[in-house]
Amino acid sequence: MRGVDGARAKPDAAIALRAARTAAGWAVSAAVLPAACLAATLTLIAGTGCERQGTPDTARTGAVDSTSATAEVISRGRAGLHAVVPSVALVGEPVKLTVAPLTDLGTPDLKWRGTLEIESTDSALVSFGPFAAHQGSFARDIVFRTPGFQRVTVRSDHGETTIAGPVFVARTEEELRVRAGEPARRLYWGDAHGHTDLGDGTNPPATYLAYARDVARLDFTCVSEHDLQQYLDVGFDTVPSGWDSVRTVAEEYRRPGFAVLLGWEWSSREWGHRVVLFPGDEPRYVSFRHAPTPAALARELAGTGAVSVLAHPTGSRLTPPVVWEGYVPGFDRAIEIYSGHGSNDESDFRETSDPDPARSALESIRRGLPLGIVAFSDTHLSTPGNPWPPEIRDAPWPGGLTAVWAEQPTEASILDAIANGRCYATSGPRFYVEATLDDRTFGETLELRAGTSARLRATVAAPGILREVQVRLGDEVYRKFAGGGPQMEIELTVGPFDESTAVWLTGRSDDDERLWTTPIRVLVP
Ligand SMILES: [Zn+2]
Ligand SMILES: [Zn+2]
After folding, report:
1. Distance between Cα 268 and ligand 1 center (Å)
2. Is the domain 188-430 a CATH 3.60.20.10 member?
3. Which DSSP category does 269 fall into?
4. 384 prior amide bond cis, ω within 30
5. Ligand 2 centroid from CA 215, angstroms
6. Measured in angstroms, how far is the CA atom of residue 313 from the centroid of ligand 1?
7. Considering every ligand atom, which ligand is closest to the CA of 273?
8. pLDDT of residue 485
9. pLDDT digits (tens, 9 = 90+) for 244-266
10. CA of 233 to the centre of ligand 2 (A)
């Protein structure tokens, strides 16, 4: 490990100021020997995001008397490689393996020099050519030739090691079908909640999108700036043409395979925050000052295809919690179970600074609300998908990621998956999860006669070792499966059901990372 000092940096310290854009590929096969660092194109400045200031009691009522722009950026003392491969591939299909050397703050380590070696569980893996460098990360085409779950271990000559995957390698497109009669879907990964210097974050939207695309290697993202962050008086409302400028930069950064959703964080103190996401370009922008209730917002956005995600529902010292009475069926479609603020859905995992179980994502399941379960970062440093971000005020944790089963990595297809709950949340790692209850999957409803049961089939795989998978009915743990290997196949009769409930999975890996799926709803009339 390199560059690890555990030091605290000042919030105005520039982090990773040097960037590399190298013109030519690297000379040696299977080796990376960057020869020239050219323009400094990716500059990341650490700063603060503060949404709410004060003690828990005053914050809950919104009575706030001070704001502060200071924050400590605390190093996690970790640096290393971030390697990514798609979670689904076909035998014989070329896919990209990307490797980003990161600093201990998750920013690109643009001074990194070294040699990378790869090794795979697929002994027949073929890799093509040398790694090519782009914006501080390295990519090469690889081809899996053995069906099943595969992983790629990447090692550097500095002793850094990381695992990309798991990848489900299918024999044919047909095998990718979640179930007969459905289009073949693949898994795509994203982080669609974060802030930039248009609002209460740091670094411009272009840096945000460059980080998502070229460093974190997300399939989708969104610059979801506040309409108005009321304590600091910043956000789209205060930047002339702010919304249009994000539309323009989003268009610049979109690529086939990289979707940039448009949206903003509707930031009502009274009703809680909502990340509003659109399926395509959208000229309409509506502040909470114009649409002060969730119902009014839904009315204003009718016909746009907008999808609302309940953000940080538990609240924290600096963020307001959800108010269930504001729930708008058909508009509110997903809920953050975890973010950089934490979670309180499991008492032993990364609590928020102001936990309230009655306002958690778990509570939405208890209430039977048909919401997709997602996890985002709420980054205020323009580093969506950062695998090891620094702690900043009230967001002491690495942010989460959301996996969607979608037909295409396009804005419309990904948002359709989120809106319909074909998604699950993780605390960051790219777990693979697939599940059906009879013939229904995440986000769908299975209607059953009272007293009948259903067959659950699930496949869960971790980058490393799975410690446990739990099958849950509502908020009860129905069955626990101990892991010990990299993946688990579960087949189980669940029931008989006497009343409507929600069947979902949670899991954890040996290094205590988590996953939470959207429920499959069981309707017993
Ligand atoms: Zn918020
Ligand atoms: Zn936010």
Report:
1. 9
2. no
3. T
4. no
5. 21
6. 9
7. 1
8. 94
9. 999 999 999 999 999 999 999 99
10. 14
311 alpha carbon to ligand 2 midpoint, in Å?
7
Print the SS3 string covering 14-36: EECCCCCCCCCCCCCCCCCCCCC
Do 93 and 122 touch, CB atoms closer than 8 A?
no
Token digits of residue 356: 């309230």
Kindly give the distance from the C-alpha atom of residue 413 to the centroid of ligand 2, in angstroms, as a whole number: 23
Q: How many angstroms separate the CA atoms of 524 and 167, rounded?
A: 36
Task: Identify the residue whose tokens are 């509003």.
Answer: 276
Q: Pairing between strand 14-15 and 44-45?
A: antiparallel
397 Cα–ligand 2 center, Å = 14
Question: Could you tell me whether strands 88-90 and 161-170 are parallel, antiparallel, or unpaired per DSSP bridges?
Answer: parallel
Measured in Å, residue 240 CA sits from the centre of ligand 2 at 20
Q: How far is the CA of 237 from the centre of ligand 2 (A)?
A: 15
Please name the helix (run of DSSP H) or strand (run of DSSP E) that holds residue 412, with its range, or none. Answer: helix 411-419
Counting ligands in written order, the one closest to the CA of 310 is 1
CA 152 to CA 292: how far, in whole Å?
Answer: 49
The CA 273 to ligand 1 mean position distance, Å, reads: 5
How are beta strands 14-15 and 466-473 bridged, if at all?
A: unpaired
Numbered ranges of CATH 3.20.20.140 in the chain: 188-430
pLDDT per residue as tens digits for the range 162-178: 999 999 999 998 888 76
Tell me the whole-structure pTM to 2 decimals. 0.87
156 three-class SS: strand
Gyration radius of the chain's alpha carbons: 22
Q: Which fold has domain 431-525?
A: Immunoglobulin-like (2.60.40)
CA of 123 to the centre of ligand 1 (A): 46
pLDDT computed for residue 217 by the predictor: 96
> How many CB atoms are closer than 10 A to CB 18?
17
